Structures are given as structure tokens and as C-alpha cells.
Amino acid sequence: MNANVRMTVAAALLCAGAAPAAAQQLDTHFSCSASRSEDGERVTYADNGEIRISGNRVEVFHWESALYRSTHGYDCNIDENDGLTAEVRNEAPKVQWRVALEDALKARSKRGYDFSRGMSCTIRLEQEGDMLTLKPTCPALCGSRSNFSELTVNLKTGQCRYHE
């Protein structure tokens, strides 16, 4: 095999190896809000976050999720300092991450919550093309609120859609 053929084969192998890794990276920030009527009451949702995950490694993860009613409001927040782990699955055309707390009780206690709301916290992130869906099951960090908001963000336009 001559040197040019070896370089072409090596370059092809490097590109083939890099494609899955690039497909398992998420680097985004979002800011969403919406108002709607629930049981005759005006409710406002507000979420903002920044997420940077590379494969199974959480580099940056900040998400604040608030729910406001006319008489009161609730919020949830989570970040990489809460002790997060990540698992990734690449099932083309969708990439899925499962982000979870390593120790939900410790993270909950750090926030000063002394009552039990549930000691689990997982957030599923599903990216398909330009769409990122955040599916939280994370009552551990939400104080009186039951959970973060489930939403879908268009990564290209920034438009958000809240799920019911």
C-alpha cells in the first residue's frame, strides 16, 4: 500500500470514529416562557438553561424551571454541582441522554429541604435533528413543586413548546 492510500484509509478511519462522538454531544442554551389557563386560572411557565454534555460526561448543566400562579409560584433548579451522571444512547436519528443525581438525598438536603417529596431525579434529553425534548422526573429538587416542566426546544430557532 502506498503512502497516499494509507493516509486516505487513516483519515477515513479517524472520521468514522469521530462521527459517533460528535453525534453524542449536546451544547445548547434555552429560554422559554408561556402562559395558559389551567382550571380557570392563569398560569405562567418560565424555563432557562444551559446544557453541555459530551457522551457520558456532564460538562455544564444549569436548568431553572418556574411555575407562577396568581397567588403563588414554585421553582426548581439543578446544576452540575448537584452531582450529576449521564448515560447516552444513540439510536439514529435520535440521541438520548439520561441525566440523574448521584445522591438525591444529599442534593435535596443541600437546598434545605427537610421533607420527603421523592428521592429520585432523572431528566431524559432526546435530540432528533434540531428538536430537543426535556422529560424530567425530578421531584427531589423542587421543594413544594412536583417537577420541572416538560418542554421541547427548537435548537435552531429557539422556539419552545410546553407539554401538558
Q: Would you spell out the secondary-structure blueprint of this structure?
A:
Elements: H1 3-23, E1 25-38, E2 41-54, E3 57-68, E4 73-79, E5 84-91, E6 94-101, H2 104-110, E7 122-128, E8 131-137, E9 151-154, E10 160-162
On the 0 to 100 scale, the average pLDDT is 83
The fraction of residues assigned to DSSP E strands is: over 45%
Domain module count = 1
Globally, the shape reads globular
Radius of gyration: 19 Å
What pattern of helices and strands is seen along the backbone?
HEEEEEEHEEEE
Number of H/I helices = 2
Note the main sheet.
Answer: 6 strands, antiparallel
Question: How many strand segments?
Answer: 10
Strand order of the largest sheet: 5-6-7-8-9-10
* Terminal Cα span: 60 Å
Oligomerization state of this entry? single chain
Instruction: Label the structural class.
Output: alpha+beta
Question: Residue ranges: pLDDT <50 for 5 or more in a row?
Answer: 1-21
Helix content: 10-25%
Please sum up the structure shown.
Helices cover 17% and strands 51% of the residues. It is an alpha+beta fold and 164 residues long. It has one domain (26-162).
Key words describing this protein structure:
164 residues, alpha+beta, 6-stranded antiparallel beta sheet, disordered N terminus
